[in-house]
Design a protein that fits this description.
globular; 4 helices; alpha+beta; Aminopeptidase; single chain; 8-stranded mixed β-sheet; about 170 residues; about 30% helix
Length: about 170
């Protein structure tokens, strides 16, 4: 199958929100506190799309995955308890979710590869991310993809594990 990674449009909002609702439910079923506080939500996804930060992975006309990608736009990362690997420009990604109909097909890895390609296209060699301590699925994905644990950052009153990957040119 050939998947396409592209900027999301408002027409993509209904399937994106369905994917995120399923992911929120999976996090809860896994016993995770992540995404159990009203975030993410449709308003946030609309904001991602409005600032050209929302991206979808599609299979034909079907949205199979979603993420937000930003450049140098994560204020919480300035206050890390720990040390980033680099101090320059960085790409950060949030809200990675795969449709429940596409789980187990390696699409999280595919999205991370697309995010890294986005960084390279923008001449940036650092990709940063964070996740909850109780999200073993994402922790495993980050580890397999070569991300290095750098410390803790804080969002909405809770601590999150912060990771960075330095890309080769």
């Amino acid at each position: 199958m050939e998947y396409i990674f592209r900027k999301a449009t408002l027409d993509d909002l209904p399937p994106i929100w369905e994917i995120l609702q399923d992911a929120i439910k999976r996090r809860k079923e896994d016993g995770s506190e992540q995404w159990q506080d009203g975030y993410p939500n449709p308003e946030g996804i609309k904001k991602d799309i409005a600032k050209d930060a929302g991206f979808v992975l599609t299979d034909g006309n079907t949205v199979a995955g979603y993420c937000a990608i930003l450049i140098n736009d994560e204020p919480a990362y300035a206050e890390i308890e720990g040390q980033w690997l680099t101090d320059g420009d960085f790409v950060v990604f949030h809200r990675v979710a795969i449709s429940q109909h596409y789980l187990g097909r390696g699409l999280s890895k595919k999205i991370l590869n697309c995010i890294e390609d986005f960084a390279r296209e923008n001449k940036i060699c650092s990709v940063k991310a964070d996740t909850n301590f109780d999200n073993p699925a994402m922790l495993g994905i980050l580890e397999k993809a070569g991300y290095v644990y750098c410390g803790e950052v804080f969002f909405r009153g809770s601590s999150r594990m912060a990771f960075e990957k330095v890309l080769s040119a």
